[in-house]
Design goal:
Shape of chain A: globular
Number of helices of chain B: 12
CATH topology of the largest domain in chain B: MetI-like fold
Order of helices and strands of chain B: HHHHHHHHHHHH
Order of helices and strands of chain A: EEEHEEEHHHHEHEHEEH
Distance between the termini of chain A: 33 Å
Oligomer: heterodimer
CATH superfamily of the domain at 1-76 and 191-250 in chain A: P-loop containing nucleotide triphosphate hydrolases
Number of domains of chain B: 2
Strand content of chain A: 25-35%
CATH topology of the domain at 1-76 and 191-250 in chain A: Rossmann fold
Largest sheet of chain B: none
CATH class of the largest domain in chain B: Mainly Alpha
Number of strands of chain B: 0
Radius of gyration of chain B: 26 Å
């Protein structure tokens, strides 16, 4: 298994007592699989990604990648955040090359790699631009290039398109599907948008509200590339929405 | 026929032209004020109420200014003062940023040194002069010490605030991309805090400038402050006023030509203003 969570629980201890974010999550993701985590806000989806990324530690249970326990952050698992989290003090090229700079790769080499991935997300001509000069969709594409440049096995995407307009989002869905099918990455994708989950995922896991647990699992066998207004997508989203609603009423 | 019933729209003046006009008027008001001030000064001095060595005319001040720059005394003094300022400020910037990052990131240092820095900030840096004189004697090092104490604390405090207010998202993204150790600090923590650091430097620079002038006034040392004091000793009021103008000028030039553009640019790039 590429990513495996066994009985993972996470409790936050804050000023107002303990909050159980996740409770006994079991999850197995095969290499090359695209898994979407779907659930209302506050169900611990992002927490789950943080645990896999190694940015946070589980309170109980354990997280494995490639059969090895996760001890901390590693560039084999790269996270993409909702608001891109690009560094404003670096230009686009330097942002994409950042991971390799941290790894001590010589400048010429890391710049060449960065250029290749900028090309992949169709932003080659924006290499000298600064973050404040880019639109939200462009920033997210740079973030994607920055993550891919490290050639990680696993991409962890935390509502990456949540803040974008529908048109840009649809375009990025297409781009992401193409890139995924070309690179064969394992993707864990968090979203609260049902149709987005169906368009992108091989599997959609519906999480229950706090404490987060896997409520239902849907296998999506629709042919790719999928479009958000596809009738099969719409039908399926109705079924999944009813599960989500039932969860919310409990 | 229908057209006639419609009242013609009043011709709106384009807002851009209006604002350009406004700027021109503002500039005219400013220049006008200073011309008036100069004229009043000239008139008062010509009335001869006070002798010239008490109340010099603008013309004699201008003549002193011209002479000072031509024979090089002002330039040398500016050079001496600026060298002291640059060395002291450089030390302050280096130490202040390192200290600020340390205090901003380490709880224990925040609770101890952080408190000390905050307390010392209340002390005007010229108050370090007696201590500096006892420690270093009437030397260049005493002046340097005062300049450093002038800028150090505000740069430290600004860096600390900048580090504490860094969006945690930057740090998580950086760690996620493999940033660790000194690289995390040099390439993420410090640049993320740069807008705050630059504000602190601007403030620190003005504190350092003020304390340097005070220190130079208090003992023989070349430099602009010394030139000012020499004017007093020679009873040469036009030199006193001329040097005061030079000091104002240097302060303004550094602020307007270096710190303000730098601050604006950094804030724009960091997405802190529209």
């Amino acid at each position: 298994m590429k990513v495996e969570l066994r009985h993972v629980g996470k409790t936050f201890f804050g000023r107002h007592g303990a909050t159980i974010a996740l409770e006994s999550i079991d999850l197995q993701v095969r290499a090359g699989e695209f898994v979407c985590l779907l659930g209302p806000s506050g169900c611990g989806k992002s927490t789950l990604l943080n645990l896999v990324a190694g940015l946070d530690h589980p309170t109980s249970g354990d997280v494995h990648t490639d059969g090895k326990p996760v001890a901390g952050p590693g560039t084999d698992r790269v996270m993409i955040f909702q608001n891109a989290a690009l560094f404003p003090w670096l230009n686009v090229l330097e942002n994409v090359a950042f991971g390799h700079r941290m790894a001590g790769v010589p400048k010429a080499e890391r710049d060449a790699t960065a250029r290749r991935f900028l090309q992949l997300v169709h932003l080659a001509e924006f290499d000298r631009a600064f973050v404040h000069e880019l639109s939200g969709g462009m920033q997210q594409r740079v973030a994607l290039a920055r993550a891919l440049a490290l050639n990680p096995d696993v991409l962890l995407m935390d509502e990456p398109f949540g803040a974008l307009d529908a048109q840009t989002r649809d375009m990025l869905h297409d781009e992401l599907q193409t890139i995924w099918s070309e690179t064969g990455k394992t993707v864990l994708f968090v979203t609260h948008n049902v149709r987005e989950a169906i368009v992108l995922g091989d599997r959609v896991l519906v999480l229950s509200p706090r404490p987060g647990r896997v409520r239902r699992e849907f296998r999506i066998d629709l042919p790719r590339p999928r479009q958000i207004e596809n009738y099969a997508v719409v039908d399926l989203s109705r079924a999944i929405l009813s599960v989500l609603k039932a969860g919310a009423q409990e | 026929m229908t057209d006639r019933g419609v009242a013609p729209l009043p011709e709106a003046s384009p807002p851009r032209a209006a604002s350009a006009n406004g700027v021109r008027h503002e500039l005219a008001r400013r220049i006008g004020f200073f011309l008036l001030l100069l004229a009043a000064w000239e008139v008062v001095s010509r009335l001869g109420i006070w002798p010239d060595f008490i109340f010099p005319s603008p013309v004699s001040v201008a003549r002193t200014l011209g002479r000072g720059f031509r024979n090089g005394t002002f330039l040398v003094a500016i050079g001496v003062s600026m060298r002291r300022l640059l060395v002291g400020f450089g030390i302050s910037a280096g130490v202040g940023m390192a200290l600020g990052v340390a205090i901003g990131r380490v709880r224990l240092l925040d609770e101890t040194i952080g408190l000390l820095v905050l307390g010392l900030q209340a002390l005007p840096s010229i108050c370090w002069l007696p201590l500096a004189l006892l420690w270093f004697g009437l030397s260049e090092r005493a002046i340097l010490f005062i300049v450093v104490m002038g800028a150090l604390l505000s740069i430290t405090l600004a860096t600390e605030a900048g580090v504490k207010n860094t969006p945690p998202l930057y740090l998580r993204a950086a760690r996620n991309l493999g940033a660790r150790g000194w690289r995390l600090y040099a390439l993420v923590v410090l640049p993320a805090a740069l807008p705050a650091i630059i504000s602190g430097m601007k403030l620190g620079w003005s504190f350092a400038w003020r304390s340097l002038m005070a220190a130079e006034l208090l003992y023989v040392s070349l430099g602009l402050g010394h030139l000012l004091m020499m004017g007093r000793e020679l009873n040469d009021m036009s030199q006193v006023v001329a040097v005061m103008l030079v000091i104002v000028g240097v302060g303004l030039v550094v602020d307007r030509l270096i710190f303000q553009p730098l601050e604006t640019r950094v804030r724009a790039r960091w997405g802190l203003q529209g």
